[in-house]
Amino acid sequence: MALGAVAERPARRRGSDYAQLSRRVSQAGLLERRPASYVARIVLTLGAFVAGWVAVVLVGDSWWQVALAVVLAVATTQVAFLGHDAGHRQMFRRRLPSELVGLVAGNAAVGLSYGWWVDKHNRHHANPNHEDEDPDVGAGALVWTYEQALGTRGFGRWLARRQAYLFFPMLLLEGLNLHAASIRAIVGRGPDGRYATPMRHRAVEAALLAAHTVGYAALLLAVMSPVKALLFAAVHQALWGLYMGCAFAPNHKGMPMPTAEDELDFLRKQVLTSRNVRGNWLVDTALGGLNYQIEHHLFPNMPRANLRRAQPIVRAYCAEQGISYAETGLVESYRQALAHLHEVGRPLRR
User: Fold this and answer.
1) Closest by alpha carbon to 338, among 128, 166, 136, 151?
2) Which of 102, 220, 315, 332 could form a cystine bridge with 86, CB 3.0-4.6 A?
3) What is the rounded average pLDDT of the residues 97-113?
4) Any idea which of 135-144, 233-242, 292-301, 322-331 has the lowest mean pLDDT?
């Protein structure tokens, strides 16, 4: 999608545009941490997560465990949102408590490497939707550009032709993909023998991931039959992956994809490639605040609860600068993302 089609580019000074917006947001007190609020959120979220697992033990060898798997998929995603906020240092100014929450929420509770996610997600924030720099739009199971589509072969090409129709079914495997990527990040080495993914606490992360995996399997097999345990795990992991994918998909998919030729300052790079999702408190909770994607990308360490309050300031400022500010409903955001996936596969359907 061409960037020139979605925004006017004033010829006036642009280097200070973000600084001016940042001053307005800072003066409103929206960059201040809210540790007490986050402590309450952590206690409630982890409390609900633990209560879900206690219920699994109490229900025992029953087919009602399938319903609990659905509930725990939601709880697991909400815990993952805590890891996201911790990775951005939204909770606390100091690194230690942020990393502690991230390791507990990510590695121990969810089975997702916190260090791997922080490295990957920081690269995404630095160059959102940039094909060569953003790992979220690199060629993989899905393709995001015509060039990526034309580079596919065999099953990958068959998939690319139909990826818009297969997008949501494929998300059912995203949970397993995240677990596998976490393990690869911890043990994977480059050609020079060094670890490929930078990680501050590799040994701790490995131990927590191992404890999560063993504990998960042991608990399920201890309280239910192998068949029910397998079904529980399949439903839990599939719906967790689906929920995670549905929370992140509306944010950038189908938005402009800048290239090396596009000279964008930080403000425009973040705003033009992001999409907000309209909604009430329920949408805010369900999407973990990621529905304020523009504000989140402009101020990654802003506490989640302040994003809604920052939105009117950012939207008004973008209007002053003549910058397109994308906001739509949840269903329409998925339609736009799927339309982009379908269009990318068009050359392969000729």
Assistant:
1) 166
2) 102
3) 96
4) 135-144
pTM above 0.70, yes or no: yes
pLDDT at residue 263, rounded to an integer: 83
As given in the structure block, the two tokens for residue 290 are 């990621």
| HEC string for the chain | CCHHHCCCCCCCCCCCHHHHHHHHHHHCCCCCCCHHHHHHHHHHHHHHHHHHHHHHHHHCCCCCHHHHHHHHHHHHHHHHHHHHHHHCCCCCCCHHHHHHHHHHHHHHHHCCCHHHHHHHHHHHHHCCCCCCCCHHHCCCCCCCCHHHHHCCCHHHHHHHHCHHHHHHHHHCCHHHHHHHHHHHHHHCECCCCCECCCCCCHHHHHHHHHHHHHHHHHHHHHHCCHHHHHHHHHHHHHHHHHHHHHHHHHHCCCCCCCCCCCCCCHHHHHHHCCCEECCCHHHHHHCCCCCCHHHHHHCCCCCHHHHHHHHHHHHHHHHHHCCCCCEECHHHHHHHHHHHHHHHCHHHHC
